[in-house]
Write a structure and sequence with these properties.
Oligomer: single chain
Structural class: alpha+beta
CATH topology of the largest domain: Alpha-Beta Plaits
Number of domains: 2
Number of helices: 6
Number of strands: 10
Strand content: 25-35%
Low-confidence stretches: 174-179
CATH class of the largest domain: Alpha Beta
Radius of gyration: 20 Å
Shape: elongated
Strand order of the largest sheet: 4-3-2-1-5
Largest sheet: 5 strands, antiparallel
Mean pLDDT: 83
Helix content: 40-55%
Order of helices and strands: HEEEEHEHEEHEEEHH
C-alpha cells in the first residue's frame, strides 16, 4: 500500500516543493533577476525567477533551468550581494602522490595568499581521471576586485610552489597556452 501511495504522491511532491520554495524565494529576496549567483557549482546571471523554477545564464552562455527547491537544498551564494567570486584552478597530479599531503600543501599555500577569502571554504575535487594522472579542480574564493590579478597568476604560483615542495605534477604549459588564447 505504501508503494502505491508514494507513486501517486510523488508527481505532486516535486512541483509542490518547488512552488513552496518559489514563494519563500520571493519573500526572503535571496536574489533578483540580473544578480550573479553560484548554485551547486554553476555560476551565472539570473535571467528569470518564476514560482517553480529559475533560469541562469552561465559564463559560457548556456541557459540552465534550476528547480527552486535547489536554492534551499543546495549551496547558493549571491555573488552580486557579497561582492565575491570563485576562482577555478586546475592541477594535474600523478597517481603516485600522497593525496592528503598534497591537499594540505594546497590549502596551506592558498591560505597564505593575499586576496583570497577564508569563507566560503576552499573546495578541492577530482575533475577527471586520466591514464597516468588525476586532474584536480581547486576552488578558492576572492573579492571581485582581486579576481583578475589572482585569476591571472594564482594557478602558476600554486604549480611552482608544489613542484618546489617535491610533488610530481604534469607540465603547466598546456594551461598557460589555453590562458594565453583566452
Amino acid at each position: 500500500m505504501k508503494t502505491i501511495v508514494s507513486k501517486l504522491w510523488a508527481p505532486f511532491l516535486r512541483p509542490a516543493a518547488n512552488f513552496g520554495s518559489g514563494l519563500l524565494l520571493n519573500l526572503l529576496k535571496k536574489f533578483h533577476s540580473g544578480d550573479f549567483i553560484e548554485i551547486d557549482g554553476e555560476i551565472g546571471s539570473v535571467i528569470s525567477k518564476k514560482l517553480t523554477n529559475s533560469q541562469i545564464q552561465t559564463i559560457d552562455g548556456e541557459l540552465i533551468t534550476i528547480d527552486n527547491s535547489a536554492f534551499f537544498l543546495g549551496s547558493m551564494h549571491n555573488l552580486s550581494k557579497q561582492n565575491i567570486i570563485r576562482l577555478d584552478l586546475k592541477l594535474d597530479v600523478s597517481y603516485s602522490e600522497n593525496m592528503p599531503a598534497l591537499k594540505g600543501a594546497i590549502i596551506s599555500f592558498l591560505k597564505s595568499q593575499n586576496g583570497l577569502l577564508s569563507s566560503p571554504k576552499i573546495k578541492i575535487s577530482v575533475a577527471k581521471l586520466k591514464d597516468d594522472f588525476v586532474e584536480l579542480k581547486i576552488n578558492p574564493w576572492c573579492t571581485l576586485d582581486n579576481f583578475l590579478s589572482l585569476d591571472d597568476q594564482l594557478e602558476t604560483l600554486l604549480h611552482e610552489h608544489l613542484m618546489a615542495c617535491g610533488f610530481k605534477l604534469r607540465n603547466l604549459e598546456s594551461y598557460s597556452l589555453i590562458r594565453g588564447i583566452a
